[in-house]
Amino acid sequence: MLTTSLALALTAGLGIAPPTQTTATKPTPTQSTTQSTTTASAATGTIVDTAVAAGSFKTLVAAVQAAGLVETLSGKGPFTVFAPTDEAFAKLPAGTLEMLLKPENKAKLAAILTYHVVPGSVMAADVVKLKNAGTAQGQRVDIKVDGAKVMVDGANVVKTDIACTNGVIHVIDSVILPSDKTIVEIAAANGSFNTLVAAVKAAGLVETLSGKGPFTVLAPTDAAFAKLPAGTLEMLLKPENKKQLVDILSYHVVPTAAYADQVVTMSEVPTVLKTPIKVTVKDGKVMLGTATVVATDIEAANGVIHVVDTVILPTPANKAQVSVDTNSAKN
User: 2 near 132, Cβ under 8 Å?
Assistant: First the structure.
């Protein structure tokens, strides 16, 4: 999904949805769910064959060829492809398409194209029951139903249920873009995580958290770090305390992408530190250990960020050590 500004996310409250497969009022399968709906007919070709034959997906087909995905999308599948028309590609900023089609940008092009692909054959009647869907690229797309209108990450679905021998095509009027920023880049650009970024640098974890992942980072805000006892942060940032800082930060990292609707079904979440964090859901709030989750599902190219209002310390033993070291630092 396109990365939402964290500043806006922080003001959005908890934002945790119930499990993905449930939504509120939705059109029934007999209602029109898009601006122009096509009744599924007998499939005569693969997704690639069908796109070529349609004549309105020339840019998409060229991109699939340039990304080396023809064989994949001609394979067994099944796949659901949200297919941008030639007009959709024409709406991209000038020079963007040409840049993406260059051989040196093949990986980036493949990431964008696979963001338009959902594993499995998901017909329109099922799409409208979803709030989001996991893509072959790894990130999720958001799905919104507003009366007879269906949107995928802000793109309007304009035609549905084009049957193929290896899946189904739904046509959209805009190219949708996944987040291309890492967790570290998003945190650094936001301005609410200056202390966290400084701690990540001091701990030597920038390269790790900029890596492939995926990771889930439980990100304390600057205000969260400010709640630590006086002198604690300064002590942790000293080179001689790097190991302790690494442990605390690793306790805020889940070694997979865990979205909010998945987290609320867990009794605890695993961490890179190998010590799990207890999950508590009560009165509309979600707590991870001693921290309250205040914003969720901020997607990055290598994972997802949930914002927390408190720095979570691994164990009582660690808390005691922090207290002792802080007192020592004052003397």
Answer: no
Six-digit token string for 156: 């309007």
SS3 277: strand
Name residue 180's amino acid. D
Burial call 156-188: b when 16+ CB within 10 Å, e when fewer: ebbbbbbbbbbbbbbbbbbbbbbbebbbbbbbb
d(CA 177, CA 1): 7
Rounded (10°) angle between helices 183-190 and 194-202: 140
Number of H helices, E strands in the chain: 16, 14
144 contact partners, CB below 8 Å, separation of at least 6: 150, 151
Domains and CATH numbers, the chain: 29-172 (2.30.180.10), 183-330 (2.30.180.10)
C-alpha to C-alpha distance for 124 and 121, rounded to whole angstroms: 10
Per-residue model confidence as pLDDT tens for the chain (331 residues): 433 333 333 333 333 333 333 333 333 333 333 344 444 457 789 999 999 999 999 999 999 999 999 999 999 999 999 999 999 999 999 999 999 999 999 999 999 999 999 999 999 999 999 999 999 999 999 999 998 899 999 999 999 999 999 999 999 999 999 999 999 999 999 999 999 999 999 999 999 999 999 999 999 999 999 999 999 999 999 999 999 999 999 999 999 999 999 999 999 999 999 999 999 999 999 999 999 999 999 999 999 999 999 999 997 544 434 443 444 444 4
Two tokens, residue 313: 């310390």
Q: Pairing mode, if any, of strands 215-220 and 253-254?
A: antiparallel
Predicted model pTM: 0.79
